[in-house]
TrEMBL record:
Pfam family, one: Pkinase
Domain Protein kinase as annotated: residue spans: 24-282
PANTHER family with a match to the protein in the record: PROTEIN KINASE DOMAIN-CONTAINING PROTEIN, SERINE/THREONINE-PROTEIN KINASE
Residues reported in the UniProt entry to bind ATP: K51
Protein keywords: ATP-binding, Kinase, Membrane, Nucleotide-binding, Serine/threonine-protein kinase, Transferase, Transmembrane, Transmembrane helix
Gene Ontology molecular function, alphabetical: kinase activity
Enzymatic reactions: L-seryl-[protein] + ATP = O-phospho-L-seryl-[protein] + ADP + H(+); L-threonyl-[protein] + ATP = O-phospho-L-threonyl-[protein] + ADP + H(+)
Top-level enzyme category: transferase
Record EC number: 2.7.11.1
InterPro entries found in the cross-reference section: Kinase-like_dom_sf (IPR011009), Prot_kinase_dom (IPR000719), Protein_kinase_ATP_BS (IPR017441), Ser_Thr_kinase_AGC (IPR050236)
Annotated TM spans: 281-300
Endoplasmic reticulum found in the keyword field: no
Name this polypeptide is given: non-specific serine/threonine protein kinase
Amino acid sequence: MTTWYEDAFRPGSEIRGKWNGRVYVVERLLGAGSNGVVALVRRGTSRFALKAGRETVDHQSEINSLHALSLTATTFKHFLVEVDDMIVQDREVPFFVMRYIEGVRVSDYIHKHGQDWIYVIGSNLLKKLTELHRCGYVFGDLKIENMIVSKYGHVDLIDFGGMTSKGRAIKQLTEVYDRGFWKAGERVAEESYDLFSFAILMMKVLDVRDRFQNIQHSLPQNREVEQLYPILRDSRAAARIAPFLQRALNGHWQSSEEAYQYWKRLVADQKLTPSPLNFPWLKICFAASLLLFCATVYIYW
């Protein structure tokens, strides 16, 4: 069965905005879900992420939130590039264009560079959430799939479909990251809601024995936060940040700023620093410069 977007988002196809008239060339599909399809596109030499969706109400809600964020003096400034409609199968489909952020999933980054990088990544993610919360929003659907990690543990959020104004009911979630799923709180857009999801995300990344797979399928009446505590002892990296994670799981903080400061103190007190990234070319350059220096000394001595 052909999906509504299959032809429109084939690599090399063009997407033309009905109102603004800008043309984007599709490079590849980045993802597709219940609330829309996202593709990597280019206009001239610039690359963007383009999201289209048929659920007009949800789509417009996400646009409104991104527009507000794009006007703030934060790292989200100018995140939203433009909004328009496209014609697919004789039907208008709304889309919006965002900055494209290149990177990998946090689990892939940790697998490649080592678990100690979780301290840097966690700090950068908390900083990003704090910015968002100051603007009056909660991310809502924080999970591994909705964040990107790039060089030196830099973090970006990439899907804002669950972003909700503070005080309202969470509008989009993934059960295992949801505190309501674990009977640990209500599904209300509070900073503590994102912090709970943050703790689950950190634990899933560091879950070396894949315990989540069994725990999340337990009977609802038996499911509780205490089931997650053994995961904190499964790896050295998880054990070191266990004091933070337990507090986040139990709703200890009402403010992400307070949580962020605690994380920084915890990492600093334990001197938790990641192993240096392995760049072979640095060794080659150093060896070459050493040889050049020796040759120069020999010639001019």
